[in-house]
Amino acid sequence: MSSVSPSSVFNVKSNEKAKDLGHRQTINFNIGRYNAVVPNGKKQFSDLTRVRQKAKNTKWRAIETLDQQLELFEKNISARGVRVIWAENADEACAAVGEICKAKKCKSIVKSKSMVTEEIHLNEFLESMHIESIETDLGEYIQQLDGEPPYHIVTPAMHKSKEDVAALFARKLNTDPSLTPEQLTLVAREKLREKYVAAEIGVTGANFIIADTGSIAVTENEGNGRLSSAWPKTHIVITGIEKVIPSINDLSFFWPLLATYGTGQQLTVYNTIVSGPRKSDETDGPEEMIVILLDNGRTNIIADAKARESLYCIRCGACLNACPVYKNIGGHSYGTTYSGPIGSVITPNLKDKGDWKHLSYASSLCGNCTEVCAVKINLHELLLHNRHTAVEEGYSTLSEKLAWKLWKRASLSRKLMNTGSGSLKNKVVNSMFKSWSRGRSGLRFSAKTFNQLWKEKNGDE
After folding, report:
1. 3-class DSSP state for residue 323?
2. How remote is the C-alpha of 400 from its chain's centroid?
3. CATH class label, 44-296
4. Is pTM, for the whole model, over 0.85?
5. Which residues in the chain are classed under CATH 3.40.50.10420?
6. pLDDT of 140-196, one tens digit each?
7. Residues 257, 374: contact at Cβ < 8 Å?
8. CA 242, CA 98: separation in Å to the nearest integer?
9. Vertex 370: Cα angle to 365 and 374 (nearest 5)
10. Which helix (H) or strand (E) holds 404?
């Protein structure tokens, strides 16, 4: 196990990427294309603010009654022959998949895009069992070929240019390095079709878990989710417990919101509701369907009345595209599955807060993430909440505590604030707060305080 702390890795990676102008140009170009189309997607809503608020209220209801919603979901989907497995953590989820693979004598799996399977490191687990697991989403497939995790919640290979992908395919698949994006897509399609035919098991996530019908809903643009769930004989769904929504009718606004804020579309190309395995009178679909409901720290978030708002997230990725920090350091610098503002909010609560509290400081607190959130999560306030709880729970260092204690004492003392010149204060403070100025410009005090200037002009009045 590495002794290097996540915060140290973050500092090294973020400093490296912040200076990489080529990386910045690529990601800002791709985010610029996203920004150009989102306004068109928003035109479908006559009252966008009301729809966003309705979505937030619906998720509030779902999370506040989560136990009831999940039990209803389990009851309804089990009635149609689906096996439901409750996994407390990543190890239990992977072990459940492993047992299914052993029972099916599985040698290969096709997997549609799923952040929760990245969260539990399913591919690495399957590799340890000598089972081939193939990512079928084009962006995820590119990342898997390159040996990298997803860079973005929605667009896994956002940091790669078309030239980067062409070079990767040439290196890994022996294709012509001058292929166009269309030609590269056809190459990937040909390779992946072979995998669909051979796979014994298909794995998908779920954008939404529907309680009243006992169904899972998947939204996508490539059709790989449908193929992964319908072609192999066994379909495994792995999903976080927070994905539940009370009613199938709620999809009427969640699907358009997710499409608009995720990709700028009015609706994604493929929207699928799966309620069970193939029936005796049906010709298509899997023979068996299993749903794994994953906790993996989510109940820790629910236990915090303020933080549980972060579980309203529908993974549209809008906050990443809006965040000035993400746009400069990129997704991999965060060192965790969920990057950007939402990742900085939930990761310290899903994992060890002492190791991951630094992510709550990876923000300018400009509030742009809150402004663009499809379900109006107060992300910048939750970042501050994380900072507060980290201190309350004793995760701040002695030097940090001492520094802020001295800062507070000086700030509350008019005598100390007026003591010395601006240059003297600069020297003292910047020598004390070296960790602050290591990644920022130094603090600069004016020659005189406002209090001193007031007295010079108005006397002691």
Report:
1. coil
2. 29
3. alpha beta
4. yes
5. 44-296
6. 999 999 999 999 999 999 999 999 999 999 999 999 999 999 999 999 999 999 999
7. yes
8. 24
9. 155
10. helix 398-411
